[in-house]
Amino acid sequence: MQAALFDTFGTVVDWRRGIAREVATLFERHGVTDLDPFAMADAWRARYAPSMAEVRAGRRPFVPLDLLHRENLEAALSLCGVDPAIFPSEELDALNLAWHRLDPWPDAIEGLTRIKARLIVAPLSNGNLRLLLDMAKRAGLPWDAIMGAELVRAYKPDPEAYLGSARLLDLDPSEIVMVAAHNDDLAAARTCGMRTAFVLRPHEHGPGQNTDLAPEQDWDFVAADLCDLAAQLGA
Fold it and tell me: Which pLDDT band holds residue 179 (cuts at 50, 70, 90)?
């Protein structure tokens, strides 16, 4: 193997707590008391896959994830019974950038740094380039490069997201291990010829999580966290 590419939201960073924290600040500022910030974070995230599906199906041209997130923010507020119009547009714009400011899981920096000593490390994320750069700068994520959807104009699990990233690194997919906390991401990567590593994140969706609590295929690696994965990779 020459490279490890990482799903980012949920695998490397804790999106739910980071988003809920910034939602709570906005709600407090405007006196919104009848909607739990974690419920709003979950509702916002629930719009993630359907909005990308519209792009993958060709019903709209490729647009960066920041734009989808901004559209999804207003839709999620409305679905939760909160009128987006009560918030100034510039404050919603600022909240949308919360996705750029997510905290890493406690093991992420050490694990990535150790793996980086042996392999090229980069995100293979649906996040756009500026989002991933801002996240890395703030959190100290030690990427060698930024890969993902915006560069290849394809959202995971479209095969081009994986194959295009391999081409940009001038690597055969078999020389890459895809690292994710999501079985469906790994299944798509495996179909494209990549090796696979499942990292358990049992609290990504909060205390009631009922998905991705165990590997669903015989992935090449199964790890408790990124430090455990580093050890399995000999780093």
Answer: very high
pLDDT digits (tens, 9 = 90+) for 219-230: 999 999 999 999
Instruction: Check if the beta carbon of residue 158 is closer than 8 Å to that of residue 139.
Output: no
User: For residue 215, what is the domain's CATH number?
Assistant: 3.40.50.1000
Question: Which residue's structure tokens are 């019974």?
Answer: 81
Residue 223: name the closest of 192, 190, 201, 203 by CA: 201
Calpha distance 201→104 (Å, rounded): 12
How far, rounded to the nearest angstrom, does the alpha carbon of residue 117 sit from its chain's CA centroid? 23
* Sign of the dihedral defined by the CA atoms of residues 109, 113, 115, 121, in that order: positive
Q: How confident is the model over 55-102, as pLDDT tens digits?
A: 999 999 999 999 999 999 999 999 999 999 899 999 999 999 999 999
- HSE value, Cβ hemisphere, 13 Å, CA-based, for 113: 9
Which sign does the torsion angle of CA 5, 10, 12, 13 carry? positive
Specify whether 206 is located in the same domain as 118. Answer: yes
Query: How far does CA 78 lie from the centroid of its chain?
Result: 24
92 with 106, same domain?
no
